[in-house]
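INFO batch 0412 | record 1 of 1 | parsing
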Amino acid sequence: MSYPPIRYTGETGEVSATFRPRDHEPELSYTSGGSVDYLTTGASTGGDFGLYRWNFGPNESGPGPHFHKTISESFYILDGAVRLYNGEQWVEATAGDFLYVPPGGIHAFRNVAGEPASMLLLFTPGAPREEYFETLAELARGRTLTDEGRAEFYLRHDNYWLEGS
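INFO prediction complete | emitting tokens
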């Protein structure tokens, strides 16, 4: 494995870093009491990655088993307890635990009911997950989709659900 091709060709460096203070308001709130911080999006990293802080509310929430064909997904638990599905079993993960899921890897996550939790989600390459998260929040608030609309939505966002989930 070697370093990727050079992408910055200047000689002096540039001022281009971005800083997000810890008290920045989340970009998205869910009716379950959870929220999502868009720490850096695929658009802001030129498609390299997207990093999000997922803050669970006290109600149990999270998707059932699924996989992605185009992106990997990584989970790093910051606090609380999150149940992670690694394709074979559910594991209760706590602060410091990490799960990497390559493209095609079956996975799921849920918080432990009654307890808030927080984790980092890393998508590589940086897919446009924001519209996906925002539509899920709208659905939780009562927006409806036809069966065809729901199938198109999941396909557009590279979500493939396992039968029965």
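INFO post-check: The mean pLDDT is 94.
INFO record closed
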